[in-house]
Write a structure and sequence with these properties.
mainly beta, globular, six-stranded parallel β-sheet, 194 residues
Length: 194
């Protein structure tokens, strides 16, 4: 049996290998993070934040800092593909199966079930991304406060802000309930503390 080899005369391509991702988890003592959450990279989770089982948080290129009082539900995926710090503000709700790759998320935002947000978007405060909405602008974009994205065509409108106090109270009650109930039925993950 003879083997034949083909010579390659093209340019030599230098591959820049990424260093291995070092895991460093800083989980506040008052945060509730279930044991079967998939964490990778440099991740800081603030006080009162609740991370459900089967959620995924990947800090691939740069660290992720999650503020206080956030709720990250099952199968939600948060990914940082930028070298800069991905900052997630306070009291955000990431519903089941959503995927968020944007470098910054403000406060009191709702990312609904199966919504996807591209890394070229920055979210301000009090924004709502509707169920299964795909937000993928070609250029970098910052959503204004009170932006609501909805429907299969990802239509936009501005919310008047009416009822935001009730929404905030409901979110706080939701987080409080989860902080009480999740530890009863799930093992928790502890970090370095803060």
């Amino acid at each position: 049996m003879s083997e034949s080899f083909v010579a390659y005369d093209g340019p030599v391509i230098a591959l820049e290998l990424m260093p291995p991702i070092r895991d460093k988890f800083t989980i506040h003592s008052r945060a509730v993070v279930c044991q079967d959450v998939e964490l990778k990279g440099d991740i800081t989770i603030g006080p009162g934040t609740v991370v459900h089982p089967k959620a995924t948080i990947f800090a691939i290129a740069g660290p992720i800092v999650i503020g206080s009082g956030c709720i990250i539900e099952e199968a939600a995926i948060i990914v940082n593909r930028h070298k800069e710090v991905m900052r997630v503000g306070d009291n955000n709700l990431f519903e089941i199966g959503c995927r968020v790759e944007c470098p910054s998320v403000g406060n009191f935002n709702t990312i609904s079930t199966r919504a996807r947000i591209h890394h070229t978007v920055r979210i301000s405060n009090y924004c709502v991304i509707g169920a299964a909405c795909l937000v993928v602008p070609t250029d970098d974009e910052t959503l204004d406060d009170y932006t609501s994205i909805f429907g299969p065509a990802a239509e936009r409108r501005t919310w008047s802000g009416r009822g935001r106090i009730q929404e905030a109270d409901l979110r706080l009650k939701h987080a409080e309930y989860l902080r009480e109930m999740l530890p009863k039925f799930n093992r928790l993950r502890r970090g370095d503390g803060a």
